[in-house]
Design brief:
Pfam families: Glyoxalase. With about 150 residues, the chain is mainly beta. The chain contains two helices and eleven strands. Strand 5 (about 50-60) and strand 6 (about 65-70) form a beta hairpin. About 20% of the residues are buried.
């Protein structure tokens, strides 16, 4: 294993036959792990809708099957489904959990999301108590994304 310092970040590089794995050093904090149909497809899809910075791409069971991203300050780890180890995509929508995302332009985000294949579950609505605009999106892997417009 080789440790590299790139732009003040430590990366561990594991060399395997015909394969390089970049792994960022673990830091204290909270990370959301999501099993998706395909990690690289999720990265591409979410990159069309939200500001996404790639932190790490790994190859475990398959090439590039795990991707760690920073989405506006939150670390999200997309893990490609792998039923052999119990990584399954939800077959139904978890109704009691979603991810909140605050954006500058909710209409622009809605259009990008629908174009990228998200389902608009709740259209852009004005919240009655605080007057904030919000919408609820569902991605193709049944995860819900509550999107608010920043004030």
């Amino acid at each position: 294993m080789v440790i590299l310092l790139v732009e003040n970040h430590h990366f561990f590089v594991t060399l395997k036959p015909r394969q390089i794995i970049w792994r960022r050093a673990m830091k204290k904090g909270i990370e959301l792990d999501m099993v998706v149909s395909d990690a690289m497809t999720a990265l591409e899809t979410f990159g069309k809708v939200f500001k996404v910075e790639i932190l790490e791409v790994q190859s475990t069971a398959k090439e590039n099957d795990t991707v760690l991203v920073d989405m506006d300050g939150m670390h999200i780890h997309f893990l490609s489904k792998n039923e052999e180890v119990g990584f399954k995509v939800p077959t139904s929508t978890p109704e009691s959990m979603w991810v909140n995302v605050i954006v500058d332009d909710i209409e622009k985000t809605k259009n990008a999301a629908v174009d990228a294949g998200f389902e608009l579950v709740i259209p852009i609505t004005k919240e009655p108590y605080e007057g904030m605009l919000y919408m609820l999106l569902k991605d193709k892997d049944n995860y819900q994304w509550m999107v608010y417009e920043a004030e």
